[in-house]
C-alpha cells in the first residue's frame, strides 16, 4: 500500500544567487505535503532537465531574479521534451516583466509568479494542475 | 543615570497610571494588538520611561560623538561637517552604457560611484563562457578585462571620485584593474578612495557569488588587506555586509550579529596572516540594510557601532580610535519594495533613508520605486537621489548629532539589540566561529527560519504590507521599465575575441603563470594579479588559474 | 512497451516512472518487478549511513565519481525523512551531487522515507531492484541517518559503510548505539580536523574489544576528506575488498539467501494483508464485532477466527476456480 505525494523540483537556473524565494517556496510546498527536491544554486538547464526526469517530478519550479529568464526557462522546457518528459509542468518565478510572461507562456512555461505572489497561490496552482 | 528616589517615585506613579487611566482606556477601546513587536520580533512596550534605563550609564553606554564607544557617531560633528556620501549603486549592459549612467548621476549631484557588476563578472566567467549565457550585462556591467575598466571610467578622473565596487570572490582582480587604470590616468595610488566589498563569508550564506572554497578565499581577503595597507592607504579593503543576509530574510538583530561575527573572522584571519591589527583595522568598513521599522533600525545602527568598538578594543586589543570605529554604508531594503503600487515604494524608501541618516551612516544608496520589477530608469534613480537630497537639505535631521539619543525607547531598544547580538556572537563562538557555523548550516538555517516566518505572517495578514495584502487596487502592469539591450552579450563576445587577437598573448601566459605560482605558494597574490591584468589577461582567465589551484566551492548545506 | 522493458534498455524515463509506481502504487508495479527479477543480482549494493552532518551525500558523490572513472554505471538512492506533520519532505541531497546530474552513467533518485523509521523508504528495496536490473554496477544507498535505528540498510546492502566525523561530540555514543555491529567499512570523514586520530584510536579500541564478532571480516577504518576527494581511493578499495570477501567466502550467497527469505516473508504478509482487507472492505462488519466484544458476547480470539474463516473459504474457492 503506497502513499501518493506530489513531487516538485525547485531549481535556480543561471548564476543568480538570490534563493530566499526559492527556499521559502520549497518549505511552503513541503508544509503542503509535497516532496520537494532542491538542488541549490547555479544549475544549468541541462542539469535541471536531467534531475527532473530522474526524479520523475510532477512540477519544476524555476526561480531567477537576474533577468536571464528568457534565455533559461524555455531551454528547460525544450530539454524536458528531448528527454520525453514533456508531461512535467514548468513554472517560473522571479522579477519578470509583464511582457516577458506571455513570451514564456508561448514557449511552454505553464505559469509565471512574480514578486508579491503568495506561496499559497503556488501551492493551490500545483495542486490544481497535478492529478494524482 | 537617574536618581534612585526619583525612579522609585516614578515607578509608583507609573503603576498608578497603569491601574487608572490605562486600564480605563483599555476597557473602553482596547489596543490594536495583544502584543506589539518590532520587525525583528522584539517586544515593544506601551511606554518607555527612565525606569527602562535604570541600569544605563551615559558615559559607558553612549559617550560623545567621535569617542569610544562611538554609539553616538564616529565623528564629533557628523553631518554638520559633511553630509553622508550619496552613492547610488548602478551598472548594467556594457561599460560604455554604465559610464553614461555614472556621468549622469555625478551631474545630478551624486557624490560617489558604486559599481554593480554582472553575475559572470562576479563569479569569474568571461562574457563568452557557456555559463554566462543570458546573464551578460543583466544585473550590472560586464567587465572582462582592463580594457572594459578603461571604458567604464572614461572621462572620470579617479582622484576626483570615491568608488565602491560590489565585488567579492574576484575582488582582488577588480582592485588590481582599478589600480592599473589609476596608473594609466597618472593618479597616485594613495589618492584612490573607495571600497571593494570583498566579503566572501556572507556569499556562502546569502548572496551566492562564491567561487573558491573558504580557506583560499580567506587568504585572498588577507592578501588584499595587506596590499591595501601598503599601497592604498585611503581604500576600504572590505565592506563587511549584513545587507544581503537581511535581504535573504534575517532580522535586524541577526543582521548585526552575523555581520560582526564575520568581521571577527576576517580580523582573526588577518592576525593569523601576521598583520598588525591597527594597520588594517582602520580600513575595515561595513554595509547594512535600512529596513522599515524606523526606530528599530536607528537603534540597530547605534548598537552595532557600540558593539564593534568593544570587540575591537577588548577582544583584539586595537589601540587606534579609527580601528574601533564602525564606518558603514547603507542601502534601503530592496526586499521591502513591492511590485504592487510601486509609487508606495518612494515613501518606504524615504522612511528607510531617514533611519540610515538618523543612525549615522557614512554613505547611502536609496532604491528606486520599480526595483521589485526591473533595474531603474534614469528618472527613477533621480527621484531616489532627490529623496536623499531632501532629507539632507530640508528635513533638518542632520543639523545636530544623533538626534534620537536619549529617547527612552531608542536607548532601551539599542540596549536590547546589543544584548541579543552579544548572545548570538557567543553562540557562534561556541560553535567554533563563523566559518564552522556556516559549514554546519547554523547561520543559513537562522536566516531561512526568519524568512519563512516573515512570509507566513504576510500571507496571514498578521503583518500588513500596504498595497500587497491590504489596500489593494486593480492595476495594470507597469510600463516604461528599463529594457536591456539584448545585443550586449554578442558585442561583448566580439570585443573579447578582438582583445585576444590584439594583445601580447605570450606575455599574458607568462603573467598567468606568475599568478599560478603565487597561488600555489604563500606570496601576496595581488601584485601578480596586477601584472596579469596589465597584460590584459581577462578576469575569466585569471579566475581559471585560481580555480585550478584553489578548487571551487561546493555548496553543501541547504535546509 | 512495458516499463520493465524500458528499464532493461536503460531508459531513464521508464526507470524513473517505475520507481514512482513502486512508491505510489506498489501493487501495480508487481508485473514489472516480476519481469525484472531474473536480471537482478549483479550490482554491488553499498549502503552509506551515519549521523547527520557526517557528509553522507558528499561521500556518495565522491565515491560515484571515482567509480565512474573506471567506467562503472552507478545508481544512487538518497533517502530523507518526511515531515510527520504535513507528510511532505525537503529532499536536498542532490545539491552535493550536481556534477553527476548530467552524467548518463549515473541515475540519482531522492526518496522520502514516508513515515518508515528504519532509515530507508518502503520503496527503496524495489527501487534498488529496478536499478540493478537496469544494469547498474554499483548502487549507493544513502540512509536517512538520524543516528538511531538504521536497520533497514543491513537487510538491503551488501556492504554497509558507516561514516563518523571527529568533533561531533557524540562519537562514542553513536558507536555504542549498535553501529559497530552493522558496519562492514568505517570511514572517518572530515579527517583533516584535529581530533581525527583520537576518534580512529577509540574506534579501533572498541573493535578490538570484540574480536569474535569480526572473525571473518574485520571492518577497516578509512579516513577521508570527501570535499577534496582525499582518501576516496582507499575507501573505494576497502569497499571492493569487502565485496571480494563476500564473493569468495560464500557470504554473499548466504546474505542473499537470508535477504530473500526475509523478503519472501514480508511479501507473503503484505499479500495476505492486502487480500484480507480487500475482502473486508466488501464483506466486513468490523464495527458490529467490536460492539460484541464490548458487550462481552465474544472474545477477540474467537472473533478473529470467525472473521478469517469465511475469507479463507472465499480464497480457496477463488483458487479452485
Report on the structure:
The complex is a heterotrimer of chains A (about 130), B (about 550) and C (about 325). Chain A has helices spanning about 20-30, 45-55, 70-80, 100-105, 120-130; strands at about 5-10, 35-40, 60-65, 90-95, 110-115. Chain A has about 130 residues and is an alpha/beta fold. Chain A has a single domain, classed as Cobalamin-binding domain (Rossmann fold). Chain A has a 5-stranded parallel beta sheet with strand order 2-1-3-4-5, with helices on both faces. The longest helix of chain A has 14 residues, at about 70-80. Chain A is globular. Chain B folds into 2 domains: about 5-55, no CATH class; about 60-395 and about 405-460, Methylmalonyl-CoA mutase (TIM Barrel, Alpha-Beta Barrel), CATH 3.20.20.240. Chain B is built from 22 helices and 11 strands. Chain B has helices at about 5-30, 60, 95-105, 120-125, 145-150, 170-185, 200-205, 215-230, 245, 250-270, 275-280, 295-315, 320-325, 345-360, 380-395, 410-430, 435-440, 440-460, 490-500, 505-520, 525-535, 540-550; strands at about 35, 45, 85-90, 110-115, 160-165, 195, 235, 240, 285-290, 330, 365. In chain B, the strands form 2 sheets. Chain B has a 9-stranded parallel beta sheet. Chain B has a two-stranded antiparallel ribbon with strand order 1-2. In chain B, helix 12 crosses helix 16 and helix 20 packs antiparallel against helix 21. Chain C contains 12 helices and 8 strands. Chain C has helices at about 5-10, 10-25, 30-35, 55-70, 125-135, 150-155, 170-180, 195-210, 230-250, 250-285, 285-295, 300-320, and strands at about 45-50, 75-80, 90, 105-110, 140, 160-165, 185-190, 220-225. A 7-stranded parallel beta sheet of chain C has the order 4-2-5-1-6-7-8, sandwiched between helices. In chain C, helix 2 packs antiparallel against helix 5, helix 4 (about 55-70) packs across helix 9 and helix 7 packs across helix 8. The interface between A and C is large, with 34 and 38 residues.
Amino acid at each position: 500500500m503506497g502513499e501518493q505525494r506530489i513531487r516538485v523540483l525547485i531549481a535556480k537556473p543561471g548564476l543568480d544567487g538570490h534563493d530566499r524565494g526559492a527556499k521559502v517556496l520549497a518549505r511552503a510546498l513541503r508544509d503542503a505535503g509535497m516532496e520537494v527536491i532542491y538542488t541549490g544554486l547555479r544549475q544549468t538547464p541541462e542539469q535541471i532537465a536531467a534531475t527532473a526526469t530522474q526524479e520523475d517530478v510532477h512540477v519544476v519550479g524555476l526561480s531567477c531574479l537576474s533577468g536571464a529568464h528568457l534565455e533559461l526557462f524555455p531551454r528547460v522546457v525544450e530539454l524536458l521534451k528531448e528527454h520525453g518528459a514533456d508531461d512535467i509542468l514548468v513554472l517560473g518565478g522571479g522579477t519578470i516583466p509583464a511582457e516577458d510572461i506571455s513570451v514564456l507562456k508561448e514557449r511552454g512555461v505553464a505559469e509565471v509568479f512574480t514578486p508579491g505572489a503568495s506561496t499559497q497561490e503556488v501551492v493551490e496552482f500545483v495542486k490544481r494542475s497535478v492529478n494524482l | 543615570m537617574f536618581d534612585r528616589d526619583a525612579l522609585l517615585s516614578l515607578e509608583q506613579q507609573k503603576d498608578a497610571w497603569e491601574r487608572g487611566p490605562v486600564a480605563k482606556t483599555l476597557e473602553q477601546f482596547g489596543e490594536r494588538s495583544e502584543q506589539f513587536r518590532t520587525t525583528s520580533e522584539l517586544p515593544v512596550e506601551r511606554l518607555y520611561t527612565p525606569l527602562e534605563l535604570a541600569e544605563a550609564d551615559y558615559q559607558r553606554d553612549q559617550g560623545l560623538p567621535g569617542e569610544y564607544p562611538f554609539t553616538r557617531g564616529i565623528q564629533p560633528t557628523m553631518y554638520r561637517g559633511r553630509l553622508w556620501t550619496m552613492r547610488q549603486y548602478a551598472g548594467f549592459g556594457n561599460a560604455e552604457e554604465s559610464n553614461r549612467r555614472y556621468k549622469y548621476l555625478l551631474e545630478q549631484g551624486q557624490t560617489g560611484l558604486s559599481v554593480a557588476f554582472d553575475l559572470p563578472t562576479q563569479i569569474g566567467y568571461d562574457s563568452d563562457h557557456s555559463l554566462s549565457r543570458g546573464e551578460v550585462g543583466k544585473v550590472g556591467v560586464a567587465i572582462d578585462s582592463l580594457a572594459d575598466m578603461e571604458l567604464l571610467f572614461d572621462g572620470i578622473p579617479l582622484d576626483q571620485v570615491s568608488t565602491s565596487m560590489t565585488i567579492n570572490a574576484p575582488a582582488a582582480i577588480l582592485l588590481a584593474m582599478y589600480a592599473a587604470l589609476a596608473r594609466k590616468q597618472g593618479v597616485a595610488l594613495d589618492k584612490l578612495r573607495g571600497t571593494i566589498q570583498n566579503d566572501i563569508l556572507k556569499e556562502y550564506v546569502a548572496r551566492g557569488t562564491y567561487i573558491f572554497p573558504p580557506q583560499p578565499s580567506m587568504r585572498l581577503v588577507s592578501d588584499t588587506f595587506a596590499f591595501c595597507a601598503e599601497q592604498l592607504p585611503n581604500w576600504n579593503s572590505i565592506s563587511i555586509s549584513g545587507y544581503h543576509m537581511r535581504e535573504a530574510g534575517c532580522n535586524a538583530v541577526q543582521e548585526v550579529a552575523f555581520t560582526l561575527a564575520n568581521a571577527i573572522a576576517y580580523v582573526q584571519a588577518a592576525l593569523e596572516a601576521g598583520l598588525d591589527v591597527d594597520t588594517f583595522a582602520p580600513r575595515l568598513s561595513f554595509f547594512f540594510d535600512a529596513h522599515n521599522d524606523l526606530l528599530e533600525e536607528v537603534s540597530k545602527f547605534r548598537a552595532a557601532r557600540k558593539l564593534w568598538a568593544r570587540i575591537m578594543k577588548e577582544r583584539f586589543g586595537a589601540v587606534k580610535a579609527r580601528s574601533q570605529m564602525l564606518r558603514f554604508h547603507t542601502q534601503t531594503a530592496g526586499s521591502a519594495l513591492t511590485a504592487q503600487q510601486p509609487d508606495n515604494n518612494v515613501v518606504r524608501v524615504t522612511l528607510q533613508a531617514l533611519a540610515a541618516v538618523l543612525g549615522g551612516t557614512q554613505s547611502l544608496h536609496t532604491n528606486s520605486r520599480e526595483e521589485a520589477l526591473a533595474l531603474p530608469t534614469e528618472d527613477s534613480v533621480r527621484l531616489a537621489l532627490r529623496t536623499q537630497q531632501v532629507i539632507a537639505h530640508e528635513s533638518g535631521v542632520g543639523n545636530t548629532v544623533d538626534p534620537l539619543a536619549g529617547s527612552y525607547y531608542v536607548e532601551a531598544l539599542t540596549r536590547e539589540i546589543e544584548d541579543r547580538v552579544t548572545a548570538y556572537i557567543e553562540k557562534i563562538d561556541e560553535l567554533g566561529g563563523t566559518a564552522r557555523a556556516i559549514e554546519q548550516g547554523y547561520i543559513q538555517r537562522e536566516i531561512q527560519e526568519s524568512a519563512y516566518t516573515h512570509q507566513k505572517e504576510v500571507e496571514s495578514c498578521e503583518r500588513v504590507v500596504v498595497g500587497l495584502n491590504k489596500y489593494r487596487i486593480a492595476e495594470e502592469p507597469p510600463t516604461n521599465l528599463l529594457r536591456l539591450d539584448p545585443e550586449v552579450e554578442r558585442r561583448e563576445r566580439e570585443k573579447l575575441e578582438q582583445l585576444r587577437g590584439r594583445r601580447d598573448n605570450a606575455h599574458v601566459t607568462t603573467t598567468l603563470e606568475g599568478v599560478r605560482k603565487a597561488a600555489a605558494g604563500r606570496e601576496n597574490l595581488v601584485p601578480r594579479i596586477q601584472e596579469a591584468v596589465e597584460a590584459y589577461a581577462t578576469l575569466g582567465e585569471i579566475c581559471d588559474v585560481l580555480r585550478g589551484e584553489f578548487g571551487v566551492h561546493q555548496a553543501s548545506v541547504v535546509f | 512497451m512495458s516499463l520493465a522493458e524500458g528499464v532493461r534498455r536503460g531508459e531513464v524515463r521508464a526507470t524513473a516512472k517505475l520507481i514512482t509506481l513502486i512508491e505510489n502504487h506498489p501493487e501495480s508495479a508487481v508485473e514489472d518487478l516480476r519481469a525484472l527479477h531474473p536480471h537482478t543480482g549483479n550490482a554491488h549494493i553499498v549502503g552509506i549511513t551515519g549521523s547527520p552532518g557526517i557528509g553522507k551525500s558528499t561521500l556518495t558523490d565522491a565515491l560515484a565519481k571515482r567509480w565512474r572513472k573506471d567506467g562503472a554505471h552507478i545508481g544512487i538512492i538518497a533517502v530523507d525523512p518526511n515531515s510527520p506533520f504535513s507528510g511532505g519532505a525537503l529532499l536536498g541531497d542532490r545539491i552535493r551531487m550536481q556534477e553527476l546530474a548530467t552524467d548518463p552513467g549515473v541515475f540519482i533518485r531522492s526518496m522520502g522515507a514516508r513515515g518508515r523509521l528504519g532509515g530507508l523508504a518502503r520503496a527503496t528495496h524495489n527501487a534498488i531492484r529496478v536499478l540493478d536490473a537496469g544494469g547498474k554496477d554499483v548502487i549507493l544507498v544513502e540512509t536517512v541517518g538520524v543516528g538511531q535505528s538504521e536497520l533497514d540498510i543491513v537487510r538491503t546492502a551488501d556492504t554497509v559503510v558507516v561514516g563518523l566525523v571527529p568533533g561531533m561530540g557524540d562519537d562514542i555514543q553513536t558507536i555504542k548505539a549498535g553501529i559497530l555491529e552493522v558496519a562492514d567499512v568505517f570511514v572517518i570523514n572530515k579527517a583533516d580536523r584535529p581530533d581525527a586520530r583520537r576518534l580512529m584510536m577509540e574506534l579501533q579500541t572498541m573493535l578490538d574489544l570484540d574480536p569474535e564478532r569480526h572473525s571473518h571480516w574485520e571492518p577497516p577504518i578509512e579516513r577521508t576528506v570527501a570535499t577534496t576527494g582525499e582518501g576516496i581511493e582507499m575507501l573505494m578499495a576497502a569497499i571492493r575488498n569487502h565485496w571480494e570477501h563476500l564473493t569468495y567466502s560464500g557470504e554473499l550467497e548466504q546474505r542473499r539467501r537470508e535477504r530473500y527469505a526475509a523478503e519472501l516473508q514480508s511479501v507473503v504478509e503484505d499479500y495476505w494483508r492486502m487480500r484480507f482487507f480487500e475482502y473486508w472492505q466488501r464483506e466486513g462488519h468490523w464495527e458490529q464485532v467490536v460492539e460484541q466484544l464490548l458487550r462481552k458476547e465474544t472474545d477477540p480470539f474467537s472473533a478473529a477466527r470467525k472473521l478469517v474463516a469465511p475469507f479463507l473459504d472465499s480464497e480457496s474457492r477463488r483458487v479452485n476456480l
